[in-house]
Amino acid sequence: MGYMDLALSYSNQMRIVEAPASGGGLSQNGKFSYGYASSAGKRSSMEDFFETRIDGIDGEIVGLFGVFDGHGGARAAEYVKRHLFSNLITHPKFISDTKSAIADAYTHTDSELLKSENSHTRDAGSTASTAILVGDRLLVANVGDSRAVICRGGNAFAVSRDHKPDQSDERERIENAGGFVMWAGTWRVGGVLAVSRAFGDRLLKQYVVADPEIQEEKIDDSLEFLILASDGLWDVFSNEEAVAVVKEVEDPEESTKKLVGEAIRRGSADNITCVVVRFLESKTANNNGSSSSEEANQVQTAVRNDSDHKNSTKETNQDHIVVHRDLDCSNTDNENLNQKPIAVTARGRSVSSEQSGLAVEKNQMPIAIRSGSEPKSSAKVPNQGKSTVHNDSPVAATHTTSLEISGSTGEKNRKPIQVHSDSAASKTSSTPSVFN
Predict the structure, then answer these.
(1) Looking at its record, which EC class is this enzyme (predicted)?
(2) Which of 111, 165, 79 is nearest to 435 (CA)?
(3) With contact defined as beta carbons under 8 Å apart, do 36 and 274 qualify?
(4) Domain count, the chain
(5) Do residues 407 and 420 both lie within one domain?
(6) Do 265 and 42 meet the contact criterion of CB atoms below 8 Å apart?
(7) 407 contact partners, CB below 8 Å, separation of at least 6
C-alpha cells in the first residue's frame, strides 16, 4: 500500500469516526428537553437538515421538531426546513385545529417549493418527519421514510409509516394517477424514486404527493421520549434497538450522539440525523411534594433576605435564546474542530457574543430571531445581557448565518424562545439517476 493509499485510508477513517454536530435544550416550562445530532456519515455531501424550536403562541409553549432528508441535492430539504414551521405557526387554526393546520402547511410548503424550483433544471425532493408539542398533545406528521418512534411504558412504538412505493395502498394510488412502480435495486416510482411521498420532485409530482399522515399521542406519565431520525439511522437500527440506546442515556443530546455514532459504526452508508425529545411529565408529578416544600422555604428565605431573593429571581426568570450557526458538515479540517463560537452577523455587521446582547433580562420580552432580509425593527434591547452562541459541531463552520433581530412586538402572539437550526449543507453538482 503506497503513501497515497495510506493517506486516503486515513482520511476515510477520520470521516467515519468524526463526531456529529450536536446540541440540545430545555423548554421554558420544564416539560420537555431535547437533543440532536447530525453527521454526513460516509458520504462526502450532506443532504440532511433538521430544526428544533420552541415558541410561545397564544399563551401556549409550543415545541416544533423536524428531520428533513433531501434527495437529488440539498435544495428541497433546506427549503422545507426554512419554511414549513413558519407556515405552520402562522396558520389561523394552528391552536384550534392543529391537525388541519399541519396538513395545510405541508401542502402549501410543497406548492411554494415547486414554484421556487422552476428555475432549476435538476429535480430535487425531501422527506419530512415532524413532531409538534401543543399542551398535552404530541402530533407527528411525515412524508417519506424519515421515521418517528416513541417509548411509552418502556416499549417502542412507531408513530409514523415509511412511505414506500411497494406498499399496496401507495402503489394503487400511484398507478391510479397514471404512474408505475418498478424494481431498480429497490422498488421505485417511475424506476427513479425510492419513496412514494415527498416534498418537491416536480417531474414526479403527479404520483409523489406531500400529503402527510398525522398521528396524535397524549403526553402523559407513560410517554417517556420521542425519536425522529432520517433513514441513515433506521437502515441499521430497529425501533426497539434505538429505544434501548436512548433508555440508557438520560441526556437527550448524548443519546443522539450515541445513536449517530453507533449507526456509523454499523456501516450506515447515508447521512444520519437524529432528534430526541424527552418528556418530563412523570418526573414533574413525582416531585410535586418536594417542589411545594422548596417553594415554601424560598418564600421564607425571601422574607429574611430580600436582596438575595431578587438576585436569584433575576437569574431564574432570564429567558435563554440559543442561536446555532450554519455548519458545513463536509469540512474535516482538524485545526478547526475545537473552534470557539465566533461573532454573529446582524444587519450586515459583525458583533461579538459579548456585544450582541441576545440574552433577555427579567421582565423583558424575548427578541425574535429570523433569517433573511431586513428586520422589522432595530435590535435596541434595554438591560442587555450576554448572548449565548453555540457551535456544538466538531467540524469547522464555513457559513455564518445572517440574523435579523427585532422586538417581539413585531410578531403577533409569538415569542420565540429557542431556535436550533442545522447547516446549509454542502451540495453536489450532479444529480444521481436514481434517488435513495
Answers:
(1) hydrolase
(2) 165
(3) yes
(4) 3
(5) yes
(6) no
(7) 365, 367, 368, 376, 377, 381
Q: What is the pLDDT of residue 372?
A: 39
pLDDT of residue 399: 35
Helix (H) or strand (E) holding 175: helix 168-176
The tens digit of pLDDT for each residue in 269-285 reads 999 999 999 999 755 55
Distances (CA, A) of 167 to 173, 182, 232, 434: 10, 12, 20, 19
CA-CA distance, 51 to 82, in Å (whole number)? 8
Grid coordinates representing 203?
Answer: 417531474
- Cell numbers found for residue 396: 469547522
Print the domain residue range for 392.
317-425
Residue 126 sits in the same domain as residue 145: yes
- R_g (Cα) of the chain, nearest Å: 22
- The reply to whether 126 and 169 lie within a common domain is no
Same-domain status, 42 and 176: no
Q: Measure the CA–CA gap between 129 and 48, rounded to whole angstroms.
A: 12
3-state secondary structure of 265: helix
Q: Please tell me whether residues 264 and 373 are part of one structural domain.
A: no
Strand partners, 33: 26, 278
Res. 311 pLDDT band, cuts 50 70 90: very low
Burial of 380 (0-12, 13-18, 19+ CB in 10 A): exposed
Cα distance between residue 166 and residue 162, in whole Å: 11
Place of cell 410517554: 223
Closest CA to 393 of 313, 323, 335, 325: 325
99, 214 contact by CB (below 8 A): yes
Residue 415 maps to a domain: yes
Please determine, for residue 403, whether its predicted confidence score (pLDDT) is greater than 60: no
What is the largest distance, in Å, between two alpha-carbon atoms of the chain?
78
